[in-house]
Amino acid sequence: MAETTLTDGSPVSEDHRNLMSNGQQKCYVVLSDDERSKGFVRPVRRSYVHETCGVTTTMGAALAETFARDPYFYAGTFCSGCGSHFPVGEDGQFVWDGTKEKVGT
Ligand SMILES: [Zn+2]
Asked: What number is the average pLDDT over the span 78-96?
């Protein structure tokens, strides 16, 4: 099991999934700095497009590096256009900005 933290490096709390007024979670789980420093299997990409609405969302470095270290780590991600979370993966709704490559593959 890879070690995880919240995006700010703090321990994973029980209430991190609580939603804020913009629809985002209070905090997101990421792979720890140590785990991410072991190397990336995909490029580090900060922005993805929700194919359903066409809006691009940009995420922080810790989240982007977690996707790059383990593309299958997340089941879903946030769309800033819709203000909600949707599935990623082969049958998911997101592609990396400027590509046809699905997020989470
Ligand atoms: Zn959307």
From this structure: 98
